[in-house]
Amino acid sequence: MSRKQAINSLLKRADALAEAGFSLGVQISVAPAYLFVTFPKVWADKYNKDNHVMTDPMVIWSFENEGTLRWSDAPDVGDHTVFKEAAAHGLRFGCVCSVKTGQARSICGYARGDREFTESEMAELLQITQDLHDLTAVDPKEQPAEIAEIKQLMAEYQGR
């Protein structure tokens, strides 16, 4: 299986588990090298317009921790109104997964509209996040064709 096929297979599995969508920033050092988003476009646009990334409790947690955390267990930091706004767009339950290797981190917010994620689903989503983190650790100078393929996939995963 090619790198592109492996990444696409993992993204499809994540999309099946997170029926309301996800937002995955991978290989973040200063900014994500790649961003895959399947959240409803109207929500993704609002989140970006309102600059929620700067005050989202889950993002804050993710830069200080590795692992998984349910939205319902969010720490008392940041602006919790983001959860009410997300729920208004069908994202009622969610979790975040954060992984790090060296200086690069990958963070994904996964959401459902119907129920909390189970422990086993969260473990699988964490493994998917780790696998995507590993698969996207590509040197642009040595593998430009693979970078182009990842960017092509990224374009396919930009809001619904």
TrEMBL record:
Read off the InterPro entries from this record. Answer: TF_LuxR_autoind-bd_dom, TF_LuxR_autoind-bd_dom_sf
Q: Which species is this record about?
A: Marivivens donghaensis
Superkingdom is Bacteria
Q: Name all Transcription factor LuxR-like autoinducer-binding domain ranges.
A: 5-126
From the UniProt annotation, give the residues forming the signal peptide. none
Q: Does the keyword Zinc-finger apply?
A: no
Q: Which UniProt keywords apply?
A: DNA-binding, Transcription, Transcription regulation
Q: Read off the SUPFAM superfamilies from this record.
A: Pheromone-binding domain of LuxR-like quorum-sensing transcription factors
Q: Does the keyword Transcription regulation apply?
A: yes
A Pfam family annotated for this UniProt entry: Autoind_bind
UniProt protein name: Transcription factor LuxR-like autoinducer-binding domain-containing protein
